[in-house]
Write a structure and sequence with these properties.
The protein is of the alpha+beta class and 423 residues long. It is built from 15 helices and 16 strands. The structure holds histidyl-adenosine monophosphate (HAM). The site of histidyl-adenosine monophosphate (HAM) has 28 residues, from β6, β10, β11 and α11.
Length: 423
Amino acid sequence: MTRYQRPTGTHDILPQDQPYWDYVKRTARSLAERMGFERLDLPTFEYTPVFDKTAAGEGTDLSREMYSFQDKDGQEITFRAEFTASVMRAFIENGMYVLPLPVKLYSFGSVFRHEKPQQGRYREHQQFNVEIIGTQDPLADLEVLLLAERFCAELGYKGVSFQINSTGCPACKPAYIEKLVDYLQARHDQLAPVDRDRLERNPLRVLDSKEPGMDALLASAPHIIEHLCDDCRDHFAELRAHLDRLKKPYTVNFRLVRGLDYYTKTVFEVWSEGIGAQNAVFGGGRYDGLAEMLGGPPTPGVGFGSGLERHVMTMQTQGVEPPPLPRPPIFVAVLGEKARQAAIDLTVELRDSGLGTWMSFGQRGLKSQLREANKRDARYVVILGRDEIEARQATVRDMAQAEQVSVPLQELAEWLKARVSQT
Ligand code: HAM
């Protein structure tokens, strides 16, 4: 028989990795809520235009990476290719623009992209996503950066780097792209084939090039920062002034261009240390024209998406230890088959009273059950045999102390609770 493997670019999250995942998600949720974000859950798939009329415009990598198909009704469907367009679709569809603005939303979920898999890059990955919708104030840009910064601080990351840039707006971006194209066309013979291809499809992406020689070639290319309109220039200056006043370190990176099509003004990434080439743990920016692309009223917004796999990788490579996940502290062991029924009842009763309790499976001796309890890190083993049942008492073994006492069955739950809650 065929043994199946998971599809290329997907991964299983095994129990031993769950403490990392749980810690990352709990930190994210608690921070978002402390900063006034509310949770929004979205469908895992949308009608395809939600993505291809917005983030995945012509020439973007994303447009070639979407998991799209026609469903049985002939509808064009795409698995979530990114959050922001989906969040904005929900914002408009649910009339959230009548709420006090801005609306601050956070979400968790899978994102699907048919990319070339490598370390830190998957075809299904999970994101923590936040958006502030309904204000143009650069303070909102600051707010999402502060959330990312606090997140890294709470997880104890070392060596994180904040990269920011402005990509301009429809008033200044096209003229800048023209200047960039002129500059690159004049050096066409020095460009690698992939960059020539980018120059054709999406010239801004050439700035992202990792090809040899491009650092020098791009150093004297026109920088967007010097070609912004007054509005974009003031907006970026104000964001920088806030960051400077708060003494938050950042780098203005004129080569930072993001792969999605809707960005205006601020774009940023947060890079983590020690996890390889795919080191962006947060990526985001402003998208002041997105609402209109989806047929909504003009509504500016800013936010970020953050890859949870990359956070888990950062924690694991930097030696950040998450707290362990709770496991049942009680194990009910059966001494002789005659006590089986009473042991099942007791297991159920202890669980009903709120105590995490392991059920002992199979017919076996006490020694084997104690060995199992030890492996499962149970702190107390309740031993129930015929003698115990007759005396209406249980023998309780404290596994750490290797001591046993008798406890009346009637008082057992309270007795255990008092001890389990001591630590
Ligand atoms: P993005 O940069 O495409 O932005 O993705 C956000 C983050 O998701 C990245 O910084 C990275 O941590 C993670 N990520 C992306 N692709 C992969 C992958 N193939 N495997 C593992 N992790 C990945 C967006 O999606 C925007 N919607 C972010 C945003 C929100 N902009 C404004 N608001």
